[in-house]
Amino acid sequence: MAASKLISNNVNIFDLDTPALVVDLDIMDANLQRMADYCDEHKLALRPHTKTHKSPVLARKQMELGAMGLTVAKPGEAEVMLQASPQEMLVAFPTIGPAKMARLKEVARRTSLTVALDSLEATEALSAAQVPAKIFVEMDTGLHRVGVKPDELAPLIAAIKKLPHVRYDGISFYPGHIKHIGEEGMGEMTKLNVMLNQTLEALDKAGHTPNVVSGGSTPTMYQSHMIFGMTEMRPGTYIFNDRNTIHGGACLLEDCAATVIATVVSTSVPGQVIIDGGSKTFSSDRLLNDPGVTFGKVLNAEGAVFHKMNEEHGFIDVTQCERKFHVGDKLQILMNHVCVVMNLHEQVHGHRKGEVETTWPVAGRGKLT
Ligand SMILES: Cc1ncc(COP(=O)(O)O)c(C=O)c1O
Asked: Stretch 39-64: mean pLDDT, rounded?
């Protein structure tokens, strides 16, 4: 699918109306290729989570590079991602309620649908609504968010196997508690492997050998081949990376593709500049595991600290900067958490070396249901 061209070529990112979300296409392409090569090398299936880019245009690109399907959280995101014509679609967030069943049934008419869930109630609802879905039973591997305990898997799978219309296909987990690949993170990986080893053995013995073991995250992306028994990975953030990804040791600054261009709108308070983007532009997400309060890294003003936000105002402390600032100056800011920033913007400008090449709508933003 061609990206829609909303503006002409030869516009520099610093000449865009602001705040503007921009993506360096060379970096994004390299991130996509690196992941495709990694999955090829380690014979891991790739089912990227589209929560990061929320764009069927980019989902298409991921599949052209070998992704076997897509992952989404909500039915509304699944509906948008159908535009990319995926052969496989995984809805990874528990789907509850009759309105959503009807929507999933329609999604399942148009692609091969898998739903990850952790309760018999959720599976019974799918079955009763005659949604022809494959089922991944979600296991809690340490995040303590959703997922059953390892010893609860076999009885749940046995009950699911008795239901019509749905079909048990595997297990899933999200190792979101591993945020950093340092000594502590690797210790967590060892615990995860022990848990997976025991669980898969128990499932084999009970006659519930999973077809698919689905896991993976961006912080652990290049350690995925070391995760015991995992057959597919679902990273999302890797396409752009962000400040949290750098902080977690999974990428370098030069691997971060997405930034926000903002304009200095006031210098009236000495030692401070105000930019035209606050929490409506950057979200309020802080840097993970960081005691300081910063909402992004200002890339083109050494020493500037983005420390406070109102909805529309970003407060930047420039007391440690050598350069002078003027109303109208443009700042380029790397966000802490790119997925939530993407959700706040209507469009993204793709550029190479600063020259805007294409602009695409964030078609999957705001899909809460
Ligand atoms: C269930 C699930 N799978 C995959 C992902 C992708 O994770 P990441 O952005 O770390 O790659 C997420 C992210 O929140 C998730 O919730």
From this structure: 98
Using the atom order of ligand 1, give the atom closest to the CA of residue 176.
10
In angstroms, rounded to a whole number, what is the distance separating the alpha carbons of residues 214 and 244? 23
Band (3; pLDDT cuts 50, 70, 90): very low
The string of pLDDT tens digits covering residues 288-302 is 888 889 999 999 999
Measure the CA–CA gap between 338 and 353, rounded to whole angstroms: 20
One domain, residues 139 and 74:
yes
- Residue where the block lists tokens 């968010």: 145
Residue nearest ligand 1's atom 4 by CA: 234
**Residue 32 belongs to a domain:** yes
Are residues 115 and 192 located together in one domain of the fold? yes
Are 235 and 278 members of one domain? no
For residue 230, give its domain range. Answer: 25-241
Position 18 in a domain: no
Residue 5 banded pLDDT, cuts 50, 70, 90:
very low
Residue 127 scores a pLDDT above 50:
yes
Cβ-defined contacts of 208-212 (< 8 Å, 24+): 208/153, 208/154, 208/157, 208/158, 208/161, 208/168, 210/169, 210/170, 210/171, 211/169, 211/170, 212/45, 212/136, 212/169, 212/170, 212/171, 212/172
Q: Which of 174, 220, 221, 244 gets mutated to test ligand 1 (max ligand atoms within 8 A of its CB)?
A: 174
Residues 6+ apart with CB under 8 A from 112: 69, 87, 88, 89, 134
Which residue carries 């492997």 as its tokens?
Answer: 193
Nearest-CA residue for ligand 1 atom 16 is 174
Instruction: With 0.90 as the threshold, say if the pTM is over it.
Output: yes
Residue 42 CA to ligand 1 centre (angstroms):
20
